[in-house]
Amino acid sequence: MTRPTPQQVSAIAEASGLPVDKEVATRISDSIGPAFDGFAAIAGTLPFDLEPSSYVVAQTLKVGR
Amino acid sequence: MSTEPALMTLTEVAKAIAEKKLSSVEVTRSCLHRIAEWQPKLNAFMAIESEPALKAAAEADAALAKDGPKGPLHGVPLAHKDMYYEAGHVSTCGSLIRRDFVATTTSTALQRLKDAGAIRLGTLQMAEFAYGPTGHNAHYGPVHNPWKLGYVTGGSSSGSGSAVGARLTFAALGSDTGGSIRMPANFCGVTGLKVTWGRVSRAGAMPLSQSLDTVGPLAQTAEDCALMLGLMAGPDPEDPTASHAPVQDYVAATQASIKGLKIGVPKAFYVDDLDPEVARCLDATIGLLKTEGADVVSVELPDQRQLTAACQLVLAVEAAAFHKRWMIERPQDYGPQVLMRLQNALAVSGVTYLEALRWRGAALAAHVAATQGIDAVIAPVSPLVTPSIAESDVGGAPGAEAVIQRITRFTRPVNYLGLPSLAIPTGFTATGLPVGMQLIGRSFDEATILTIGAAFQRATDFHARVPTLP
Prior knowledge:
The complex is a heterodimer.
Chain A: H1 6-16, H2 22-39, H3 54-59
Chain B: H1 10-18, H2 24-42, E1 45-48, H3 50-67, E2 77-81, H4 108-115, E3 119-124, H5 158-165, E4 171-175, H6 182-188, E5 191-194, E6 215-219, H7 222-232, H8 250-253, E7 262-266, H9 276-291, E8 295-299, H10 304-329, H11 336-343, H12 350-370, E9 376-380, H13 400-407, H14 412-417, E10 421-428, E11 434-440, H15 446-459
Parallel strand pairs in B: 2-3, 7-8, 7-9
Antiparallel strand pairs in B: 1-3, 4-6, 5-6, 5-10, 9-11, 10-11
Helix pairs in contact in B: 2-3, 5-6, 7-15, 10-11, 10-12
């Protein structure tokens, strides 16, 4: 996963119903880009059956001492 | 114990009122006196409700004489971050958009404190919609650090940190979505508890990110935080995400010894690129915990940068979803920094957002595996010492965004994992600004980190130092 380009930001913003101009799209791309870089190793690698609700199950995992 | 009531801890003052050694009116007057002195310097309060507070205090005194204490906080005046709804009262959420918003319901956390006898002193400043880590607010002005005017409080619970630090309120509710309790606690020299996600009901608290938001206290001591948490924790029919996990006896936990507890020091990330004064403080804190009997070991945690990234993606999208209507209808009414942060979500697709959420359980399981046998992990709250208001103003200072990214670096992983974390004051810089550490615990095990925090505070006096009026 790579950070979105200003053009891609513009397209997603338009689809979200919150269109932005080119300057704002560039600023957004620069600002959120590091989060995409940081998540790149995870994106596209998750097992099929993993649901968001697995988090609540993980909260109950016991740590042995 | 101080002779000035406002300087007492929450635990001390609650006991003094219950035992009729002090009246609620005396205590409330003492707080209002300090507020009158400090508020012009700090800008910590959003609203000061002197007359209603004194009236409520007189009623509390009369009720105590007639029926005994209503609960553990009988007659104790408190003020909270201005995002906890109370029916019939304005809750600005630090914003222009909600400047005149009158709540029709009362938040569960606030109601539980009221049920315990607490009375309302006013409301506290905050970052606009709790979406800012420094204490800047474009509409109501910055909140100042009580230890040094012109320096940030940390945010978003800026007024809570500043007011507790200056002893204007005995405790205050904050909220922590990306570090918003721990950073003000760190920079203002107070104790702040970010609870396990789901430990305290979020009903009636302004939402920012439903997957990350937590409600918790800032106070002088770990014992005070334990008292507050014990009153608020537990399930709530108004918030289905509030957990049924057993509520521990947190106050009892603060009396326990840390002998034999195993505390992990991360081998990387939290010890990298620290300001020398933060590094010195971390070493000193570890040394003291060893002296008190803790078993301190190194721990290798999973990649924390990935957790930070996932946290940012989830937070951005959920915040923007809450704000979408106002982003369309009233964009001009947001402060520039907050609107810019909200717009960041416009780069994130639905698939990416859900991937970041789907990974959360696996990431927590990996953390649990990495910390097997460890009771708590210790880490700085921030790699930096307190920045000035000017140097962290995104609207003016060059490099301010980089400062903001750095000060939030150590808090976001905990939010993504939903773990509890207790921020405690652990020292001061050469220029007199507080430095804190966070004790990161296991899910729903706030008791252990409160035990460690309280033991540290029995052996030190950093939490008990009081700033002087500039």
